[in-house]
Write a structure and sequence with these properties.
This protein is of the alpha/beta class and about 475 residues long. About 25% of the residues lie in helices and about 25% in strands.
């Protein structure tokens, strides 16, 4: 008989399995991501059917799961109490109005960004509300967890802690305690003894997540999984897990900045465009209920090249400051820099200014920045970027009480954007007196005397309005 292979090649990005090494993964088309790892042991156990690395109990004459039967949709009840509030309005918004019982949620982000701190605060809020919560840590001891918990506040209620990395022990603890919410920190430290590879490998991460998914669906327990990612992509984690979990949340933000953005990348129970804004303070993460006011604080009043724009994240309008600095170049090749927005988009908009408005942008260096370190790629920021470039080039300040938004086409036309009325209402709420927006959106809006609205059809009209508003 042929000798069975004990190793296989897995893609670190998507988890694709192959019997031989390949330079490019045929599933996700990533290069140099195939790594060799041992295959999980498939011991023959009476009464169980083994499929790959996952085992399911067999029962009945057909060999399927015992007790499983098809049902109609009208037999499934959806009640409001199926959602559990986390105590953070920002997190509830991203999750889709709360935690769903039996869901599997992945919280990813760079190490040290604040994932464990946020989940510990969520566990404290749930325990204070009378929920039974189990926090399982594979990276910290109980003393370390207590030191961190003392900074975020007093812990009351049925909040249990466990330091363990063996999935079999963890599964026994969950089945014995029967909590409503479980936190696994982090998935890279968990392992199963029957998988002959190191913790953090593709095989261990995928098998561990598969077991936690069965626990969450079978017992109706909401499970949060922490996954670390690095810029080099060395650690196998969220890329492999995204296909298996119900919700994927990513923490974004610079370590030297106080704010953090929690972005929903995948959500089977809500919108995938929502974001939550938090501020890192000494006592932990504090939610920012009005991010527009927070992002605009400290901006210059009479500086050229500074323009206030409005971007939509999910259903939330956010006001932010677009800054541009245009200086005459000293070399034949002008320099372009974009921070927080698409570099190629900035080059495109500068080409529109040179072709349609006859500005000699090829003689100038240009630096564009979204203040606060945010990363926004919405086309509605096009008009604000264009007017910020012109303002800096002419050294003429734009009124600090003016908000600008609109998409710019290659012909220099200003195209309509979505949710224009919500953007204007956000500007009114924060005390802005004028707004430059696409004429198409203005024609469809109701008239208001709370703010002066100026509709523009092309870039030239918008530039002509700068001296009037």
């Amino acid at each position: 008989m042929a000798k069975a292979k004990t190793t296989a090649f897995f893609c670190k990005e998507c988890g694709f399995e192959s019997s031989k090494w390949m330079g490019q993964c045929p599933a996700c088309h990533a290069w140099n991501t195939m790594v060799e790892e041992p295959v999980a042991k498939t011991a023959s156990v009476p009464g169980r059917v083994t499929l790959g690395v996952s085992s399911f109990s067999s029962g009945g004459r057909a060999g399927g799961r015992a007790g499983a039967a098809p049902v109609k949709l009208d037999q499934v009840s959806l009640e409001e109490q199926d959602r559990i509030s986390t105590g953070f309005g920002e997190l509830d918004r991203v999750l889709g109005s709360g935690i769903v019982a039996g869901s599997l949620v992945l919280v990813g982000g760079d190490p040290g960004i604040g994932k464990s701190t946020l989940l510990l605060q969520v566990c404290r809020n749930l325990a204070a509300a009378g929920r039974r919560v189990l926090y399982i840590s594979g990276e910290e001891s109980l003393k370390q967890i207590k030191m961190r918990a003392s900074r975020v506040g007093e812990v009351t209620g049925e909040l249990l802690f466990l330091c363990e990395t063996n999935l079999d022990e963890i599964q026994a603890a969950i089945e014995g305690e029967k909590p409503e919410v479980v936190v696994i920190d982090s998935i890279q430290t968990m392992f199963r003894e029957d998988v002959a590879s190191a913790p953090g490998s593709v095989s261990q991460v995928r098998e561990s997540t598969n077991i936690l998914m069965q626990i969450a669906k079978g017992l109706g327990i909401a499970v949060f999984i922490v996954g670390h990612v690095t810029k080099e992509g060395v650690v196998a984690g969220p890329r492999v897990l995204e296909h298996m979990v119900d919700t994927v949340l990513y923490f974004e933000g610079e370590r030297n900045a106080s704010y953090r953005i929690l972005r929903g990348v995948k959500n089977r129970f809500g919108s995938t465009n929502e974001i939550g804004v938090f501020e890192m303070q000494q006592q932990g993460l504090v939610e920012v209920e009005n991010p527009s006011e927070y992002l605009l604080s400290g901006r210059p009043e009479e500086a050229s090249g500074a323009v206030v724009a409005c971007s939509i994240e999910g259903t939330r309008p956010m006001l932010l400051e677009v800054q541009a600095l245009v200086t005459q170049t000293n070399f034949g090749m002008p320099r372009r820099t974009a921070a927080g927005t698409d570099y190629n988009r900035v080059n495109l908009l500068m080409a529109v200014l040179e072709k349609r408005c006859h500005y000699e942008m090829s003689r100038y260096d240009a630096y564009v920045n979204i203040a606060g370190g945010l990363k926004m790629n919405e086309p509605a920021l096009d008009l604000a970027i264009v007017l910020a470039l012109v303002s800096s080039m002419k050294d003429a300040a734009v009124s600090p009480k003016t908000i600008i938004f609109g998409e710019v086409g290659l012909s220099g036309e200003v195209r309509a954007v979505s949710m224009a009325e919500q953007r204007v209402n956000e500007a009114i709420k924060l005390g802005f007196s004028s707004c430059i927006l696409p004429q198409v959106n203005l024609d469809k809006m109701k008239s208001t005397d709370k703010i002066a609205l100026y509709g523009v059809r092309n870039v030239r009209e918008a530039i002509g309005l700068l001296s009037r508003v």
